[in-house]
Write a structure and sequence with these properties.
Blueprint (H helix, E strand, L loop, with lengths): L8 H32 L1 H9 L3 H6 L11 H13 L5
Helix pairs in contact: 1-4
The structure holds protoporphyrin IX containing FE (HEM).
The site of protoporphyrin IX containing FE has 5 residues, from helix 1.
Amino acid sequence: MDDGELLSTEAIVDHMSFFMVAAHDTLTSSLSALVSMLAAGRDCRNGCATRSPDFACVRMNVAFDRLEEMKLTEMAFNEALRMIPPFR
Ligand code: HEM
């Protein structure tokens, strides 16, 4: 708190409950949007599969520190967020 007083246990539990629900809800809805749009859009799906190392990386179970190489996946995710935002 601003006055330096510690938060109560109840306040921390409330905060973390809200945090976990918000993180879960935004992520699951945006990933669902991405997957459904990829499933529906043949051009995008083929593009991602053939024109970038992205999906090869997925098949190879890419390491966390190489995720930034997946540029097309990031672009597709941003487009899914734009078209079906998880919040307004
Ligand atoms: C695609 C998924 C997500 C979207 C679209 C999203 C969106 C947002 C937005 C719009 C805010 C600002 C809210 C405000 O100021 O009123 C925010 C804040 C925040 N989000 Fe997310 N979020 C996502 C996933 C996550 C996940 C998975 C976590 C944690 C595991 C997370 C943790 C946070 C935290 C800690 C803040 C507060 C940051 C601060 O105020 O300094 N978010 N998020």
